[in-house]
Amino acid sequence: MTALSTAMPTAFQAVQIDYAALAPMLVIVGAALLGVLVEAFAPRGSRHMIQVALTLVALVASFVVLALVSVDHQTVTAGGSIVVDGPALFMQGTLLIFGILGVLTMSERFGGRSADAFTPMGAATPGSPAEANAERAGFATSEAFPLTLFAMFGMLMFVAANDLITMFVALEVLSLPLYVLTGLARRRRLLSQEGSLKYFLLGAFSSAFFLFGAALLYGYAGSTDLAVISRAITTANGDLEGLLLPGVVLTLIGLLFKVGAVPFHSWTPDAYQGAPTPVTGFMAAATKLAAFGAILRLAYVGLEASRIEWRLGVAAIAVLTMVVGAVVSVTQTDMKRLLAYSSIAHAGFVLVGVLAFDVTAVSGVMFYVLAYGLSTIAAFAIVFLVRSGGSEATHISQWAGLGRNHPVVAGVFSLMLLAFAGIPLTSGFTAKFAVFAPAVAHGGLAGIVMVVVGVLASGVTAFVYFRLIVLMYFTESTADDVVVALTPSIASTIAITVGALGTVVLGIVPGPILDLAGRVSQFIL
Amino acid sequence: MNSLALLASQGEVASATGVTAYAWLLVGFPVLGAAVLLLGGRATNAWGHLLATALSWASFVLGFIMLLAMVGRGQEERAAHVGGWNFIPAGQFQLEAGLLIDQLSLAFVLLITFVGSLIHVYSIGYMEHDPNRRKFFAYLNLFVASMLLLVLADSYLLLFVGWEGVGLASYLLIGFWNHHPAYATAANKAFFVNRVGDVGMSIAIMFMFWKFGAVDFVSVNAGAAQAGSTAMTILGLLLLVGACAKSAQFPLQSWLGDAMAGPTPVSALIHAATMVTAGVYLVVRSHEIFNAAPNAQLAVAIVGAITLLYGAIVGCAKDDIKKALAASTMSQIGYMMLAAGLGPVGYAFAIFHLITHGFFKAGMFLGAGSVMHGMNDQVDMRRFGGLSGAMKITWITFGLGWLAILGVPPFSGFWSKDKIIEAAFIGDGWKPWVFGFIALIGAGITAFYMSRLFFLTFHGKKRWIDEREDPERAVHPHESPLTMTVPMIVLAVGSGLLGLILSWGGMFSHWLEPVVGGHGEEHPVLAVPVIMVLTLLLVAGGAGYAWMLYWRDSVPLTAPRGSLVTQAARADLYQDAINEGLFMRPGTHLTRALVFTDGSGVDGVVGSLAASIGGLSSRLRRLQTGYARSYALTMLTGVVAVLGALWVMN
Lengths: 525, 650
Fold this sequence. Notes:
The complex is a heterodimer of chains A (525) and B (650). Chain A is mainly α and 525 residues long. Chain A has one domain. Chain A is built from 21 helices and five strands. Chain A has helices at 2-7, 19-41, 44-68, 86-106, 129-137, 144-158, 164-182, 189-221, 226-235, 241-259, 267-274, 277-302, 307-329, 335-354, 359-385, 402-405, 407-421, 427-442, 444-474, 490-508, 511-519, and strands at 75-77, 82-84, 386-388, 391-392, 483-485. Chain A has a three-stranded antiparallel beta sheet. In chain A, strands 1-2 form a two-stranded antiparallel sheet. In chain A, strand 1 and strand 2 form a beta hairpin. In chain A, helix 8 (189-221) packs antiparallel against helix 10 (241-259). The two termini of chain A are 23 Å apart. Residues 1-5 of chain A have low confidence and may be disordered. Chain B is mainly α. Helix content of chain B is 71%, strand content 3%. Chain B contains 25 helices and three strands. A three-stranded mixed beta sheet of chain B has the order 1-2-3. Chain B is globular, with a radius of gyration of 29 Å. At the A-B interface, helix 8, helix 10, helix 11 and helix 13 of A face helix 24 and helix 25 of B.
């Protein structure tokens, strides 16, 4: 147990903290705390505006600080628990962009007094007089915005966490606000609460796996620091070999839960369907990115040395994820659930890249989650617009003939679907190429098998997406209910436009972003 | 850097300087016009046609300034290369889209923009009352832009872009009045036949890429001499297939007659003066390939010789004025092909005849349009007659074109066509005798059918119905407005004088020599004066015979049954029946067989695959029960399974 004794400090030493490196996170957490105060003291009428403005300013400020200051402070800091390196910065920057776009869509009011997506009173029983009174009195759950910032803080920390404890704390910091946000949908309250509760229960279950795995790894290496674990694996004498594999598998599974990998995906459709639609978009883009950031770091920095032992297990999960995600999406009838299964399939595609274990795969994965996130936020923002009798028209049959009445909305949505299907000249194609290419080049036989499965699964999902396009453009709408697309506010329009432009630009001229991702894909150990 | 740019840097083709560096604007002006007119919608209805015309003239002015700049440069420095953007970057293969401005392409630029602009002006009058006038001018501009791209491209691939662009414009304009089903069918026919040529062109480009690793003119020309004659024969024949379709040469000639469904200015510009000559341009531009492949060259000459007779024979029997002119176009391009197939002795004359033909044939088409304009869109020449009094300007300008195509000295055709006939008599063995006499006989037939057309229309007794006979159905022949007559006059002046000016001291041949290569002094197998006298005698005979039949004698209103040859010629020598029997029927059967295989075999497999995925999907979907407890159980199962499997494996 020599490793243990060396890791124990003999006397208390104040750790060095590079505040410039941590500044983006500090800005976010500060703004989130400020948001709590706003919630307490600002008058109800102006709360929405203040919260939205504060959140956006904080996100933009954090991004500016990141781009101008933190890039020059790439280091391991806070006593080795946080590492700010190229991949961390790239993913933090991407997360902040997703945050900005997500908040822009969440702020959508459609001319009402408060955000349209959120219930006036989260704690009231659905359909109760209390809820009706809250609605009448103009209550609003503007705390959604500070909650988003807290989640954002957790995600920023998640992709920069350099030891298992920090990683776990970040995981919980990002998850808890999301559990609450999931339960705040204004309409179909019961479904929303049910999704929230399931998400919470299963999330807690998976956190337990992660903690158990972390404990086993600590037992094996004598430290939770990823670099120390890595060293321990290469220099191990075999005494505690039995702890390693369960530790690795359990920690990875804790993280794979967050990306919705099969068989840890069951929460995804329920939570995606129940959550307020803009939150779903934000969650699908940002949580997935943060979790893949953590998986990349854990797998490449901490556990890479033992990859021969566990890689096939994760490869099986990747194959299963792609197949189940693609196949089950075929029979979905609800738009949000369909997109949820699509996100599951996409998680499988990204995993194929992760398992290539090459520096080009890191940039490929980062590019993929960026491209996918931009399209996803815009896609859910559009789902949010399509209404029937005031509530969202999420049943697929309600989308029939949308292309005739709302050509722009249907056109942009079709663009997103083409991107999801990976059609050339959209970001989806470049992204798939960016993760599949390293898998073929460096992943060996398993990599090639996974890519073949991935391409076949893409074919299945393409069927699903094209069927939607056919439905929107070539099917007459059944005249039972009137489906309209509401006119979005400037904020949502910006978010959708950025998402659509990103989808096209990353498809046609992906060079600059791919180069950037390639340049910053080296982890600091 | 592609090899052309490489050679440019080594000084073989200098990069353009001065005004020539703005060559992209030549294409840019008409593209802008097409874009504004098509995207601007109804807002541009009022002034769109004027903008299109102005932009076409702008291209001409720029081209003319470039000509002055080129004349100012020394003989060796005339060719210039204008870089573009990296068109296709693919690993080692980099294709830059650039323009090549040399004597050949500039000659084409001036022909296209000058005749094109005149026809724009003419169309202002001709299309005045058409509800879709804006679209018409947009397509015309699109055509001019594509055609300029075709002749200016520095590589076969970029040429192909222009090639397809003119095909598209041609398709859109043939079917411009597509509310007539027959016109829409004509557009489709042109489209289909041209696909055959495009396949040839595409394979040719792939072949070049395979053989030379490049598709730009400089590399291909440089590699052609060393590549071996078999490869070059294949390449030459593939290019010939492309050329045949675009230029309506035998055996892909069938679409041109039907293409006359388009508005007459279109027939003048696209289907007489410019697009249909693209095949000749292709052959001349690829001269190094054909020089290295005598057999392919011979094939070009044979195709040209067959087509020149074919067109001439068909032209004798047509009563539709535009179809007769179309047959004549086919025949004249046959002359150009024949010249291009003769090798270095013929290249310059092929292009020379192409230019003079562009003028006189466009002029005659515009004249035909003017006649139709004054005759309520009647096209049957048996219903014309004696129009020389009613339409003086049309008569005189058409007359000049007629004299030019007959090759009467000193009009344009005499200088260009007779040179081709002379060149056809050059060589050894059987070739000069066969090609020479075909060219000679063709000239006689040309004189007959063109005189027939001219006399039927403008001379003899009037055969149209006037006010006194039947006020209901009467026509009132009248001269066309100035916007139409001025372009006709300009083109008629060209028909009269251009040949003389350009051949003064062999000017045009010397001009092209740096591009197509020179050749030594060669003598025809018959003495030149003998050929000239024979030609003139045949021409006089043909014209005289036509005079007897169609001016002196009265012409029946309905066509007599005629001999078997006449009947065959009237049916375009049964080209459609042959195409149908040889290609369409077997093609239809093949398609049906394939559809059946596809339906029962491929679709069956795909369908059952889809069904099984759907079935799997509904089964897997049941796992999503909605109970958190069963979700947790799934997770636990997953954890145990992964752990267990890895434990067993390790």
